Amino acid sequence: MERPFADVADLAARSGLRGRDLGALAAAGALKSLASNRHRARWEVAGVDEPTELFGRMRFNEAVPMLRRPTEGEDITADYRHLGLSLGRHPLALLRRRLDALHVLDARSVAALPHGARVRSAGVVITRQRPSSASGVTFVTLEDETGYLNLVVWETLAESARSALLGAALLGVVSKVQKEGAVLHLIAERLYDHSELLGNLVTRSRDFH
């Protein structure tokens, strides 16, 4: 039975991975179990030399600098940049206090509201769809740390708030709750672009597929 990898250098030696591949793993946070955090993993990968025909892969023992451990927000941002998702907490979990200050309810709280209630909510845009059969209506799916919200944006609002609708990564909305049995939609009345709250975090959405 193969023993677990001891560290990044051991992984490089035994797996035969090239420096570029190791760098991609480090950047994606996949080596944290071997190097304690993403910053240290990238440092250790940088110190792995490519194998040569004469000597194979050389290994040197160097002192590890006192690298600052990345914050949770930095790790999540890096995850989204390299993977398009994170196995850590949802980005909006880190922003919830700021969203609370804006009186923005999360998806779970919105789901508990009665039909006809007006609410302010927000989420990371997951999809934008405008079916040809929908007479100009745009459907938007938002995600936060508690679930999903489905918006219905009528054509008039879509035109007047076009920039926020099409450009926001974090979209805020004032809307009216529409419930039919277990199905809940939000009929959008106003749209806001809150993307600046995400800082350097880059998200991706599936638009008009």
Summarize, please.
The chain has 209 residues and is an alpha/beta fold. It has nine helices and six strands. A five-stranded mixed β-barrel has the order 1-2-3-5-4.
Characterization of this structure:
- The protein is α/β, with parallel strands linked by helices.
- The chain has nine helices and six strands; from the N terminus they run αααααααβββααβββ.
- The chain has helices at about 10-15, 20-25, 30-35, 40-45, 70-85, 90-100, 105-110, 155-160, 160-165, and strands spanning about 120-130, 140-145, 145-155, 170-180, 185-195, 205.
- Strands 1-2-3-5-4 form a five-stranded mixed beta barrel.
- Strand 2 and strand 3 form a beta hairpin.
- Helix 2 runs antiparallel to helix 4 (about 40-45).
- The longest helix is centred in the middle third of the chain and has 12 residues, at about 70-85.
- It is elongated, with a radius of gyration of 23 Å.
What's the helix and strand layout?
Layout: H1 8-15, H2 19-27, H3 32-35, H4 38-46, H5 72-83, H6 91-101, H7 107-111, E1 118-129, E2 138-144, E3 147-153, H8 155-160, H9 162-167, E4 170-180, E5 183-193, E6 206-207
Helix pairs in contact: 2-4
Number of strands: 6
H/E element sequence = HHHHHHHEEEHHEEE
Give the biggest beta sheet. 5 strands, mixed, barrel
Strand order of the largest sheet: 1-2-3-5-4
Q: Which regions have little confidence, pLDDT < 50, spanning 5+ residues?
A: none
Query: How many helical stretches?
Result: 9
* Rounded average pLDDT: 84
Based on CA atoms alone, the radius of gyration comes out at: 23 Å
General shape: elongated
CA(first)-CA(last) distance: 47 Å
Strand content: 15-25%
